[in-house]
Structures are given as C-alpha cells and as structure tokens.
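Objective 1b. Sequence-to-structure analysis of Queuine tRNA-ribosyltransferase accessory subunit 2.
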Amino acid sequence: MKLELSKVVRGCRLGLLTSIGQTEQHSLEVPGCFLYTRCATVPHLTQDTLHTLSNLPAVTQVTLESLAEHQDVLEEFKHGVRKFAGLQDTLLFCSLHDPATTHPAGHVTNKTVSVWGSGGRIELSVAKFMAMQAAIRPDCYESMADGETWQANTSRKRVRKAVERTLSHLDECLELHHKTQELKGCEIFGVVEGGDILEERLRSARETAKRPVAGFVLDGFQSTSMEQELREQLITAVTAELPQEKPRLLRGVGRPDEVIACVEAGVDLFEGFFPFQVTERGCALCFNYTITPDPETAGTSPPTVLESNGEEPAVEKLKENGDGSPENMTRFEMNLKDTRYRDDFRPLVDRCSCYCCKNHKRAYIHHLLVTNELLAGVLLMLHNTAHYLGFFHALREAVANNRLRDLKNKVLQ
Ligand SMILES: [Zn+2]
C-alpha cells in the first residue's frame, strides 16, 4: 500500500492510496471514506441497486463483529467473504466492531476482547481473531485492540493498560499474520489508543509507528466521547507523530462538520456509516456543499454536484451525537416522516443525480415511511450514500483549490 500525497495544506492531506490489496489494481482518494456494510452487505441495497451509484469507494468495510458467528461456514467455504457475499470489484477492510452500533463495556481482559453477534457475546483471543481474519480474507484489517477507554473520566491507569494491551495484541497479530498463508498480500493497520490523555496518545502513536503496519486506526474519538476541541487537539498531536506516507483512519466519526475538522487535524480516511444512520431514522441528507466558483479558478476544476433546495430542513430536535435513533437527528438532514412532506412533490435534493431523486418525490418517500414499506430504506440509502460520497468529492476539490474555509462555511450554514 502506498500513499502519494499531492498536497498538504494546514494539516489537510490530499492524495491517492495505491497498491492496495493482493491485486494492487485499486486506488482510493484521500480524504475519503469506506463503503459501510453489515454482514458484508450494504444495508437495504442489492449489488445491482448499489452499482447504480457512480464513484463508489474502492474499499468496502466489513466487521468481524457481524461475521464472527459464521467462522465455521467461512472456513468451510474457503474463498473469503468477498466471494461469499457476492461483492463485486471491491477491496475489503475488516474492522473489529460495527461503527454504527454501541456495545457494552467491561468485557476485555489482558488476552481477549469481545464482540456481539445476534446470539450474544463472543470472546476473541488473538488466535481466534487471526483465524477469523484468515477465514474472511480481507485486503487489510485492523489489529485486535482494547478500545474501551473512550468514555470521559477513564482513569489514567486504565488508559495506560489499554495502550499496553493494544501494542501487545498488535505484536501477536503481526507474528501470526506472517505465518498465515491465507493472509499473504494482506496488510495490517495498527490501532492508536490513549483515551483523552495526551502523553498516552503520543506513546501509543510512537510505539505503533515502530511496527511494520500499513496504516493507523485512531480509536476512541467517537462522537459522544469528548469535546470537539479536545478531540482536534489530540488528533493533531497524534498525527504529527505518525509517518507521512501511511494513511490514518478515524473510527466512529461521520458527521460532515466533524469530518472537515478531523481532516484539518490530519485524518485521511473515515468509516462511511453516517448515511446508514440517517436512513435508519427515516431522514435524507440535504446539506449544501456546493461552493460558488472562485473567479480565478473558474473553468479549471470540475463542478461539484449539488445544490440544496434553499430551505430549512425539518429538524425536530438538534442533538449532536448522531446514532440511528430519531432523537439523534442532525442539522444535515430532513425528516421525511414529518407531515410537511405529505404533499411535497419535489425530489429530496434538486439536481441530485441518484435514482431516488431522478424518479421519486418527497411525498412518495413520506408515504413509504408512514406505511412502513421496505422500499423507503432502499431509496433513502441510495440517496444518502450518493449525497455523502458527493460531499467527500467536494471536500477533496476544496482542499485542492484552497477553498476549505468556503466549504466549511457552506456546510455549517
Ligand atoms: Zn438523491
């Protein structure tokens, strides 16, 4: 895996990740995001409907959590999750936990971590974790980590222990990785822990960077866990310790304003779970990310794709922690269940080129939602994914053209 940076401006890194995975044929632009899946499928969408979207990310995220119960089946199948789930033309990144769900704390030991499947808790040793990776056969995966220090007020002793355990798990994963034939050509990302304690964050970053990892996962910065300002300070300090030529993936952060702030702090990659959470609460992304052309560069850069409808979205409550429940709606979306959309015959977003916006009106989506039709989730997921990927495209354009401040103003409008 190679990260070629074409521009670094005030902490933001613009570049291309190449030579990923066994075939080395795919590339991923940064700043960028992965394609979110659950049980290795994009929720609500078949591969055919998914591929009506253009410019899908080259990397799909699968989670060990959603696959752990199927280890024996995958081992018997022998060809990995990509073939098992019929995924077309994509690379796989395997994470431990599903970023769109929360799980109970208090289930890690010196030697094990736990994940939750539909049948309950599954305890993983490094040996079992690596056996799972061999069965899944991703192109890259994050090493096993003790990530239970994201809550505020976690003690210094507990944070230090998490850093030590995570480094020890990484060393064991690396050792087994090199002995595992099924993981030939696959690469490991090291996980940086350290809670909200600067010196532990730096120690974790420096020690992880000494190991032969392909990239880094910055863990424990989930939206609800700490103040935005502290998070940005810690991420800036951590990324300064990491080698420039390796990618940094931030776990658990997906809201557009937070994505921009974290890109400014030196993050390259995000998990793409936010459109799914928005879909689950019956909402559509509608924030504006189109910045007016700079007269000096007008005509030289490709236009960004969307304009909002110039109206306030129906936000019932503004809570800022964005999981999939209705009370966590953010300012970036409209609630299609609201009766104001009952006779609104406009597309979700004007000039959006997704299948939903080209073929359906807000009133129809409202009708599907209030009658609990499954098609509502399909259409919303298509639009929300298209809108979110369009935002990342606009973000890269803004960094390339020194217009990040303009984009930020537009998104926060
Ligand atoms: Zn659309």
